# Entry
Amino acid sequence: MTGLRLTVDGPVARVVLDRPEVRNAQTPAMWSALAEFGTALPSDVRVVVVSGEGPSFSAGLDRRLMVGDPVDGQEPLLTLGAKPEPELLELIAAFQSGFSWLRRPEIISIAAVQGHAVGAGFQLALACDLRVVTPDARFSMREPALGLVPDLGGTQPLVQLVGYSRALELCTTTRWVEAAEAKEIGLANIVVPADELAATVKDLTDAVLGPLPGAIRETKALLLGAADRTYEDQLAAEREAQSRRLKELIAALG
# Structure
């Protein structure tokens, strides 16, 4: 009903956007379902793979919600601006929670991107830690062209990946970024032929599952916070993380 397939298989969870008839266009109901899925993940899940059914990853927000048409009973986006500000901010925060859990330190998230990744689709790919893309992948931050701002958590990871100047250029021009450029500027980790996408994501998943989960959790947390710390603070954070790991390893042996 929400246009998603959500599954858990041991340490690997999978999110499949499943509305291929509209290029996996997204709705607030999908964001709510994503947030609930993230909250309910079993503690032994270590990798989350996000992909789209069909030839596109996601064409972004369902355009019918922008032009004022209801979709499965969901409120058109522009009417949200009439709500009292506290209610509106709380609603946007709920939308964001469908994406933000993918950056939690205890999991590594991988986006398998083919075809269009536009607007909300681009931000969903950015919410993931790693992006494996096919040669036909195309990214665009379309929100400014619609008079809106990217508000699903995509702005910070975009700056972290490509730098402020490039991020500003991509958002203000809303231009397309093809797969080759995405790899060149750091948006994509790997570009592989479409028929190798699933196998490459599996190989990457297996590699990520190799190290001990505590080490991955602490390392991801260190890297996520590195840009906001001074060098001395980062050294201190490394010391504290290593102390926790050594104590945990000793406890496991005892």
Q: What stands out?
A: The chain is about 45% helix and 15% strand. The beta strands are 4-9, 12-17, 47-52, 108-113, 116-118, 130-133, 138-140, 177-178, 190-191. Residues 70 and 76 are 6 Å apart (CA to CA). The chain has a mean pLDDT of 95.
